[in-house]
Amino acid sequence: MMNRFLGTIGLLLVMVGCGSGGTSLEREINELPDQWSAEWKSGASSNNYAMLSRVISLTNVQERIRLTCALRRHFWKSPEWYVSRRLGIHGEDARLLFMDGCASRLIFGDNVTSESVLAGWRMRAEILDDLERIMELTAGDVGGADIEKSNFAYRVRRKYELFFSHRISDCIGSYNALPSECRPSFVEQIKRDFFGRKGMEKVDVHSLPKAFWE
């Protein structure tokens, strides 16, 4: 009886320890200053990526996903925020690249799981939602007389196009790496989140595994 009691106490201590660790890391995330430098390997940006690396290294996949989402949410800004500021190539790129980095680190790496891959692709879809909204808000600026507005609108559209020309094909590797029983749900998720977007017009879907287009 005493051994069972001690075992229960030990289990509770482990659970509390895991929980407090996650809470501590989340607190650190919430305290990160919203500052960026032009290069991700230096200055303020390097601190943000260092935190991302710490989160991605967590062994508990649910905590890894939850805290990656918390980290992205901490630095997230609305499409309207971007349009109202038009920060210039470094100001907007540093933040948007970090958003993409959060998703990519869930999809790729040594400790990825089916859950993290699906979560990473959901995050990528959310990033595209923001870009599409920015494109809507800046539709009248494309090729306009205001050079600053026009350049900003062009850069956002270029980011959007590059996703479909370079990133959508990542789903091939994800599909092949997933266990066979997880593939149907992944295919449906990709179809639902990406195939109806305008950017897919330039994608040869037949270059993807047959399950995506049959």
Describe what this molecule looks like in 3D:
The chain is an all-alpha fold and 214 residues long. The chain has nine helices and no strands. The protein starts with a helix and ends in a 20-residue tail after the last helix. Residues 1-20 have low confidence and may be disordered.
Query: How much of the sequence is in beta strands?
Result: under 5%
- What share of the residues lie within helices? 55-70%
- What gross morphology would you assign? flat
List the secondary-structure elements in sequence, H or E.
HHHHHHHHH
Number of E-state strands: 0
Low-confidence stretches: 1-20
Taking Cα atoms only, what radius of gyration do you get, to the nearest Å?
20 Å
How many H/I helices?
Answer: 9
Structural class: mainly alpha
End-to-end C-alpha gap: 60 Å
Summarize model confidence as the mean pLDDT: 88
Largest sheet: none
Q: Which SSEs are present, and which pair or pack?
A:
Layout: H1 2-30, H2 43-56, H3 61-75, H4 79-85, H5 89-107, H6 114-137, H7 147-167, H8 170-177, H9 183-194
Helix pairs in contact: 1-3, 2-3, 2-5, 3-5, 3-6, 4-6, 5-6, 6-7, 6-9
In short:
The chain is an all-alpha fold and 214 residues long. The protein has nine helices and no strands. The chain has helices spanning 2-30, 43-56, 61-75, 79-85, 89-107, 114-137, 147-167, 170-177, 183-194.
Looking at this protein, list some descriptive labels.
single chain, 214 residues, mainly alpha, 9 helices, 70% helix, 0% strand, flat, disordered N terminus
